[in-house]
Amino acid sequence: MSTVESPTEIDTLEPPASETNADSEGQGNEEIREFIERDYQYGFVSDLDQEILPKGLNEDVVRFISAKKDEPEWLLEWRLNAFRHFMTMTEPHWQNVSFPKIDYQDISYWAGPKKKGPAPKSLDEIDPKTREMFDKLGISLAEQERLSGVAVDAIVDSVSVATTFKTKLAEAGVVFCSFSEAVRTHPELVRQYLGTVVPPRDNFFAALNSAVFSDGSFVFVPEGVRCPMELSTYFRMNAAETGQFERTLIIAEKGATVSYLEGCTAPMRDENQLHAAVVELIALDDANIKYSTVQNWYPGDENGVGGIYNFVTKRGKCAGHRSKISWTQVETGSAITWKYPSVVLQGDDSVGEFYSVAVTTHYQQADTGTKMVHIGKNTSSTIVSKGISAGKAQQTYRGQVKMMRSATGSRNHTQCDSLLIGSDCGAHTFPYIEVKNDSSEVEHEASTSKISDDQLFYCRQRGMNEEDATSMIVNGFCRDVFDELPMEFAVEAQALMRVSLEGSVG
Amino acid sequence: MSLSPATIVESLDGHSSVSSRNGGNVSDSGRERYLEWLGANGLPTRHDEAWKYSPLKDLLARPLDRIASDDDGLAVDPSAIEAALGSINSVESEIRIVLVDGVYREDLSDDAEADGLTIGSVGTTAIDLTETSSDPSSAVRSRVDGFEMLNRGLGSAGVVVVAGDGRAVERPVHVVHLWSGSSDALLVQPHINIHVGVNAQLSVIESFVAAGSTFTNALTTVVIEADGMLRHYKLQSQATGSVHLSHVAVTQRRGSSLEAGAFMFGSSIGRNSIDVIAEGDRTSTDLFGLYLPRGSQHIDNVVTVEHAGHHGSSSQIYKGVIDDHARGSFSGHIIVDHGTVGTDAHQSNKSLLLDPVAQSDSRPWLEIFADDVSCTHGSAIGQLDPESMFYLRSRGIPLDDARAILVGGFINEVVDKVRSESIRHHVMRLVKDQVRSRFTAELGGEL
Amino acid sequence: MLRIEDLRATIDGREILQGLDLEINAGEVHAIMGPNGAGKSTLSSVLTGRDGYDISGKVTFEDEDLLEMAPEERAAKGIFLAFQYPVEIPGVGNMYFLRTAVNAVRRERGEPEVDAVTFLGSVKQHMAELDMDPGMLSRSVNDGFSGGEKKRNEVLQMAMLQPKLAILDETDSGLDIDALRLVAGGIQRLRSPERSMLIITHYPRLLEYVVPDYVHVLSQGRIIRTGDASLAYELEEEGYRGTEASLSGTGGGASK
Question: Are strands A288-295 and A324-331 parallel, antiparallel or unpaired?
């Protein structure tokens, strides 16, 4: 187990005040340069005082987790039903990834900071070591500090440790808290919506999550409210040999708007750790949910040892008319990613979007994409996927666009491009387009190629070295997606790309 | 137990129950091998991606009277199929090969010795493929499925067409697949084995015109030797009620080129599949197809090109026009092997839906294991452009005619890909009939 | 400054440059003219280090072996190529590209990076001189630019990078007369006693504005004739064929 000293000046990534609009994407380039020498910089382990459940999975574990969180009887039953169904399922293998069989009995399903007396009443009471860990990650748990426009829910292993700006959000009527807290404070909302977008039996990993999910974030934006700040959850896996199974539920009532960001990191370990999250989004009439992810779980080392198995089910339901759900993801981490943030377009005139950049290097594998299921009339969806594969990595875009018979007058446009760097990697594009009515239109375009020699030569003739040139061209390739990210994340995403591709060139 | 593809395979346990097929042929070591494979792996299931959009349940349970034997085809009196033969339009200066119930009928076929072509049943002394660099009919590739093995294991002996090295065969070969009608639900499994020699050139048209509720499970195996060229066209206009599965497996050697077009008009359930392995360097592969399902037709196209050599180029252009409550699908697949360089591969699928309950599925896949590639795919599903429709109608053209004209324009691109002029005319005549019968409108101009 | 001796370049088994000699001193403007396929663009590619050629002969730039250097090293040494077909780089802002290039070159030369305000001021001034819309700065590099915009963008980059040797590869092609005048003006402004230029062109029209000190005729991979600016017009009247014919038997190899 190796530990890497983490830089503390991560906030150099903060965008400098911009002089001109024209130069906006140049920001952070110098800072990016500083990253060059570094490997995975979040690989440290924090010495937290934690309680870890012995390995193994059975009904008692499910009961333990539920009891640990003082859950109501209905939720325990819900979990047990999911668990019983899970036991009848087999691990799916249709994805274009390969990994050794996972022993689900060899994982600990609970790890969290040891409670010392009652839960912290205010942010000041957070365990200093936990606070220190987040400081190292560049995530401030103090409200007055730099990410002052962003409310943060910090989750370590299985447990939410802090949520900032709760009071300010509450004034606007927005509920932003840990999932466990929501079960206590807003049981009726949780009960009404939990599992309505991703049912417990949806798939193997969703069933597992439903049985053993530990914590996660909960967001409720009431009718007509525009959430006054960005909401963000920061996930940190710290303990060894544990799985992380968080569950996030976001509800935007009629006319509500919310933008939510999610970041994640994990220590460097030789073992593979399982992360099987479920995210459910519900948008009612005229509601708008924007969900952005920068996924940077530990990807394993250059020989493919270690790293996170990121098997995640994310789905949003545009339940209401004219509602909109937009997923943006930048995926650079994890040894294996298996993830298809999807939108069910149920309401008429609803809109679904998926913007994705996925980078795989070394021995990383990713099978990612989206599903757009059009049910309502005049619904529209956009898919922009940019994949970059380097080293010995294999990457697959898998996407489904389905126009149901009822979805008359609907539209989809998909643009799906892959860039290959090096002759030993792979890039695969597996779209499924299914149209069952004659008034919808679907357009799909895709390309796969290596970085153009002409572009590289042009940049080098202007004085840039090959690596800088590659980085610039790749960032340009991803521009359409980065443009969708909130500013704080856009800069971080470009920096991450740079670090991920380090050493892949030449 | 009633006979169906599924029950045939179930009964393969030791394949004793079907070993009476074709006299002693089953003991043939090749067939043994295929049947063993089939016994072990079975027919496709819904988990087979290549069969994802096919109505597998119907196919597997399709009731059959029996499996056609070579005797069926040979026993048919020419007068019995005269009408059918007469209904087939000839291609200009064609060399005709007639198969009845999947069996080569030398007596009804043209002699092609003078054209540098060798044609004959497998097993006849005239054909010795061991002299050529490989016997494509025996090669079992990585991508095979149960229906191909069913053909290889229990199909007819097959006919071999060999264009010798350096022979540029000018006259097109027209393979006409006829049915005896001796039994209504007959499983007919022809196997055409085409060998294009080094620097040889050949054009082959296969016309499928089965009547009744025949179940056709055809196989065409092709090897194109270095610098050889093959043009292959499949014209399928089987009767409604019939099933048509046809698979073309091609191996291309260095510098060879292939042009293959599939025109799927008939049958209730139709599946056109082609799998090309461009094994040599600098190959050129040009695949295209047209499918026009209507009524309750269900037509699938499964097109795979694997680039295993350097500097290969390939294109796939498939178009569908889907009417009524019919279904049409395209599953294209480009594979570029690890270690290859300079591949240029493109894929395009466009379809028009003409009815609110018509259905189109498209699955344009790229699977790329090398970086020195330029690959694209595009897919578009939509309807006739309302603006164009309005434009034509504002010029006084009635609705049906306007539709026919726009559909014709949409289709033309595919027909134009047929490079040989005489064959293009032949294809165009068929396509015109199809479009005309749909819109009851006379088509002028180009189409 | 630049000395080329017996330069030969082969691509795909075809020898394009067949023993080319040329010397360019500081402050001189040389034009190379010749028919299509004479090797004009190959010369610019070889001098700037594009991959794919088998090269022999000797090229020194300020007494250093140029052929050993990577493209970016040559750029840092002060060699600039205005591309005949400027490359489009989608998603990369023109301004960002320009600043990255300028700073990369400055860093290589041990000069401090230019601050944003100074840089922007300088860019805007040059753009005004080239009559370029400032909005082009926020567009992607050459992406969707018209032919004329691309060529002006090349000259803008040249002005910002302040090279010692500028190679202009058919910079005049595809320009209407107004654009040609603007581009030529941009080039002319950059003339200085320290800066040399190598103008590769098919027609003499650019040379009306940027009058060269020497004109060379390139044919079949070597310089077959050298003269002053008047040679360009002579060529226009007689055509290259005439020149080639009149020189057949002289053994070629003429250079200054």
Answer: parallel
Domain extent at residue B207: 5-280
Residues in chain B closer than 8 A to A423 (CB atoms)? 338-339, 341, 370-372
Q: What is the mean pLDDT of residues C47-53?
A: 91
pLDDT over threshold 60, residue B131 = no
Start-end of H helices in A69-178: 73-87, 128-137, 166-171
Residue A435 and residue B361: Cβ atoms within 8 Å? yes
Cβ-contact A358, A396 below 8 angstroms: no
Q: What is the pLDDT of residues C227-255, one digit of tens each?
A: 998 888 887 777 766 555 555 444 333 34
Q: Which of the pair, B16 or A391, is modelled with greater confidence?
A: A391
Q: Give partners of A (≥3 CB pairs < 8 A).
A: B, C
Give residue A505's pLDDT.
Answer: 62
Whether B313 maps to a domain, the answer reads: no
| Chain C residues with beta carbon closer than 8 angstroms to that of A452 | 87
Number of structural domains in chain C: 1
Number of H helices, E strands in chain B: 9, 21
**Interface test with chain A among C51, C73, C99, C100, by most A beta carbons within 10 Å:** C100
**H-helix or E-strand spanning residue B402:** helix B399-415
Task: Look up residue A43 and give its amino acid.
Answer: G
Q: What is the pLDDT of residues A181-213, one digit of tens each?
A: 999 999 999 999 999 999 999 999 999 999 999
- Hey, is the C-beta of A455 within 8 angstroms of any chain B C-beta? no
- Model pTM score: 0.86
Q: Which residue of chain A is at minimal alpha-carbon distance from B383?
A: A438
Q: What is the pLDDT of residue B36?
A: 87
Compare CB distances from A463 to C91, C94, C101 and report the shortest one's residue. Answer: C101
Q: Does A438 touch chain B (CB under 8 A)?
A: yes
- A340-to-A283, A355, A398, C104 alpha-carbon distances in Å: 18, 11, 8, 40
**One domain, residues B259 and B389:** no
Q: Which domain holds residue C82?
A: 2-23+30-40+48-178+185-217+236-247
Contact B379 A439 (CB under 8 A): no
